[in-house]
Amino acid sequence: MSTTHSEEPVYDLAQLGHAELLTPVYEDSLRFFVDVYGLDLVAEEGGSAYLRGWGDTELTTLKLTPAARAGLGHVGWRAVSAQALDRRVAALREAGLDGDWIDGDVGHGKAFRFRAPSGQLMEIYYESEKYRPTGEKRPYLPNQPQAEIHRGVGAQRIDHLNILAPDVPETRDVMARALGFKLREYLVPPGQGEVGAWMSLMNKAHDLAITRESAPTSGRLHHLAYAVENREDVLRAADTFSQLGRPIEFGPAKHSRTQGFFLYVIEPGGNRIEVFSGGIHIYAPDWEAVRWTTEAGGRSTAWGLDVPPSFHAHATPVLD
Amino acid sequence: MSTTHSEEPVYDLAQLGHAELLTPVYEDSLRFFVDVYGLDLVAEEGGSAYLRGWGDTELTTLKLTPAARAGLGHVGWRAVSAQALDRRVAALREAGLDGDWIDGDVGHGKAFRFRAPSGQLMEIYYESEKYRPTGEKRPYLPNQPQAEIHRGVGAQRIDHLNILAPDVPETRDVMARALGFKLREYLVPPGQGEVGAWMSLMNKAHDLAITRESAPTSGRLHHLAYAVENREDVLRAADTFSQLGRPIEFGPAKHSRTQGFFLYVIEPGGNRIEVFSGGIHIYAPDWEAVRWTTEAGGRSTAWGLDVPPSFHAHATPVLD
Amino acid sequence: MSTTHSEEPVYDLAQLGHAELLTPVYEDSLRFFVDVYGLDLVAEEGGSAYLRGWGDTELTTLKLTPAARAGLGHVGWRAVSAQALDRRVAALREAGLDGDWIDGDVGHGKAFRFRAPSGQLMEIYYESEKYRPTGEKRPYLPNQPQAEIHRGVGAQRIDHLNILAPDVPETRDVMARALGFKLREYLVPPGQGEVGAWMSLMNKAHDLAITRESAPTSGRLHHLAYAVENREDVLRAADTFSQLGRPIEFGPAKHSRTQGFFLYVIEPGGNRIEVFSGGIHIYAPDWEAVRWTTEAGGRSTAWGLDVPPSFHAHATPVLD
Amino acid sequence: MSTTHSEEPVYDLAQLGHAELLTPVYEDSLRFFVDVYGLDLVAEEGGSAYLRGWGDTELTTLKLTPAARAGLGHVGWRAVSAQALDRRVAALREAGLDGDWIDGDVGHGKAFRFRAPSGQLMEIYYESEKYRPTGEKRPYLPNQPQAEIHRGVGAQRIDHLNILAPDVPETRDVMARALGFKLREYLVPPGQGEVGAWMSLMNKAHDLAITRESAPTSGRLHHLAYAVENREDVLRAADTFSQLGRPIEFGPAKHSRTQGFFLYVIEPGGNRIEVFSGGIHIYAPDWEAVRWTTEAGGRSTAWGLDVPPSFHAHATPVLD
């Protein structure tokens, strides 16, 4: 009956800490994230805006930076301890992914920066600043980080990131070996090789999705997702986006992988943003990665619905 | 800004693996768990029934055993690896909680059994048997362990346990030090000392709740909870229990601690059973345990609703 | 098989048009209805405030008037046509309920005012003013009367009224004969006579509930209800009231009668206000009124939950 | 301020009583409606099956009849009284729509049959048989017609019908004048004339939708809809259809017109079947029909989602 693992699972990273998005229309993007998506602006420093969802425990989870083209500035993964951080830096170097220490940024301390095989800039860190609500930001329940925001969609907390990779197995292998990401599901359509991998750090269905880059480029972002509490909140988000004149690209519907309930919009700068809820939780320490083969590439929903072509074609930076 | 921890968090236990409930009316309890609560009967062996929820990855998560009185037979926590199991056994012994190895049971291999300071029998183990669905038990999505059960409440997967302890801090301290449970919230009403502690292993708000035993006894169970996917499922469970003539003791409502959505019923044997959904998820590795003080002992709901007296008075075994 | 009716059902009244609430703390009540309950203030005239829910088609559905004591000022029922109004005035007079024509009020034209046998002031009218949204009040869907309000609870539209009557059958008989209210359900606990009647005009489970006045008085209000779209909105309202520090008296839960999903709060002036959703819809023209007998007086919920004593004791005006 | 109507609204028809569907694969269709859609089989007589939803008050609301081709056999509208029935028969004749009396069918008495200008066979009737539950069909609440069905989708009650008409205004004009259907919304895309009309009898957003037949034929059915209680039930229906291997054509999503929450499947015989929930309720007796013009023909959802081409192309009978 027993299952034997020669190798122990690693729990050195705790969470997706923050992401930096680049936008060619900084003011419009900022208005979108504050007024429509419902984040709070925590600081503006060095030309960037730092935002947070009302359910985030970190001070800031989104950095918004003006740039010539939309895309992912970098993504930050938080370690469970200072020692764990050191272990992961060593593991990264062992995996041949060297990088540099930076001093820190608004909301967190020193971080080790490296580039994933798929080209995205990443960092790992431990020291960070907690959000301390004051005044009307104080929640009515002490186990909430902040009073609930009812502005726009009211996105609650950062949830996951989907990056594109020319070689999916190569990138997910490094993320697994060096950082302890666990492979939860992967998609291998007949004759296409592995086109998608969904990985998580602890109990989530995914903190990181890696899907295949089909263009001759690298380092691109497919989407960044914040979570809301119930799928009813996703349905209300659909109403809110419609009321506020922001077109929905895809959803609301239920993903096949992760079983999350979702919808996608494109923020003014061009980056794809998800409103996500639910999804399976994974408690088995020896979860066997689920191999999806029967569905052809386009099937992304549990209900078999059609996927709009843009969902597979659009990523940031947009190619010239 | 930084936070410094001298001690690293321990992630050696993965999940609440299973619980054993004792019942003086075995047949009635079994019918309740299968027909009303919606679990599947996996095996009957040695006089006990072994059941599972359709969302459980383990073969069995509930063992039902005939006994003179209702109560908790034992509870099993699953380690993340064989090595982690050994480390926790050593830590238990170091904490002065000695125990014995047993060979295993239906669904899992060798386990180390010990008694918590609060008197409940517990075990930790790693080797376990995965459920392999066949025939009509096969799910339509490969990332579900089993086809969804629509019988009765359709309880999805084991979620958490609430035990009573004469000395709450003593028990939660051992669970923290020896097993790596993290304290998430605790309740200290004015002048009463700590009357409740909510602890979890990884991202959940709680895998284990410990509340104060006010009777001169020990080892009692307050409730066992299975989760459902949405709070709408809890509302439907209320309809289902009512349709099937099973009185609801408390709920549906929203907990203050954990923010879970809940309802409670008493199974025919007398044990309190919860249908639970949602609740906060904890991703910060340095989560600061939330101290609840302003609410007097009786306030268990986020909406300030009255708690029925039985909720504080009833536990199993019932005292003579 | 057939059913034969000698008498035809009457469809001369269309809807609960508006209600007037009296409050001893006008400013506080107004702030509650605008900021917490989420209505819009349409006009202040003659010392009264006129408000509307974002889903109301009438210009105003709530009139708030300063008074020495809380209570119901009057309630207005809208006829389906000018001719129907005349028919109902004749029927009221035939039933011995004389009254007087008034010229109208903000939002509606001439109305015939009379006093129900249970003492509440009522009026029937036809001519009324539609709400015409402009600017940011314009909805994104042309079949919504107004852009959705996300402030506070965001109560959507006026739904029903519960009055107290010393003699329930007497009042409901007049409402049926003179105005065409259809009896949908009634409650006759053993040995108590008829203590409640639920009546509606067309497809709703109730536009008017009449429950027994147990004090030596008349003309009192039990509660006024606005509807929200889904029961999820009632759950969210529970959060909102809690966040805004407004205690919930009863609910969220599911009514036995009407099967509506509900919660109750007391507005600052003392009147009980409901947030209501769902409930059965009645399409059979020969619906047989449902006689409830098995449940004792206190059972108001479909799930058998306890009713707080205040729910049966409190009404407005409060007795000295 | 006032509104003046020279003509009074007519409330002589109460409800969509039943529909008859034709199917070339009777056994498969019957299995679908019982096992997947969740209706109960009430009788099999004269080669047809008679079914009901658990929330229907009529004995039977769906007649399933073997035929060479799928399509609508007939649709039955129930009058509010015997006198109202006679008035409507006279009005039909006055409108030039003659017909014949039939003796009745399982579940209802004599009916007047006529053909709508758009070619569908319709009947109006009053005498009907109520469903009387016995044994385990008895509901736990006396205001439910039957114990809730948890089999398959558990469709609750018949809701509405969408027919195709070569000339939409002609058909809706007759339905209004002769039968008292009220026009609630209509769609007039630029340069296309009126391509859709949504009409109802009392408080619903629609009992009957009429959309343009673009093929050189008449008498076709676009879809038949049963309602479920919450939009969560529609989401669960999507899971259920997927689990049972029945493809979803369109939805779950939210309609623009009616604002109902929906999904569509094609039953084995080829008829399109909807699972519907919610939608606006109309209480104003002088509701002004909403003219939709800004959206081009294909926009059927409130969220601007794409409509699958089959939704506009497929109807029954399918053309050769």
From TrEMBL, chains A, B, C, D:
Listed GO MF terms: dioxygenase activity; metal ion binding
- Which SUPFAM superfamilies does the entry link to? Glyoxalase/Bleomycin resistance protein/Dihydroxybiphenyl dioxygenase
Domain VOC residue range list:
15-127, 157-278
Q: From what superkingdom does this record's organism come?
A: Bacteria
- Assigned keywords, A-Z: Aromatic hydrocarbons catabolism, Dioxygenase, Metal-binding, Oxidoreductase, Repeat
Identify the Pfam families for this entry.
Diox-like_N, Glyoxalase
Q: Which InterPro entries match?
A: Glyas_Bleomycin-R_OHBP_Dase, Glyas_Fos-R_dOase_dom, GlyoxalaseI/FosfomycinResist, VOC_core, XylE-like_N
Q: Which PANTHER family match?
A: GLYOXALASE FAMILY PROTEIN
According to the record's subunit comment, the protein's assembly and interactions are: Homotetramer.
Q: Which family does it belong to?
A: Belongs to the extradiol ring-cleavage dioxygenase family.
Q: What is this protein called?
A: Catechol 2,3-dioxygenase
Q: Which organism is it from?
A: Streptomyces antnestii
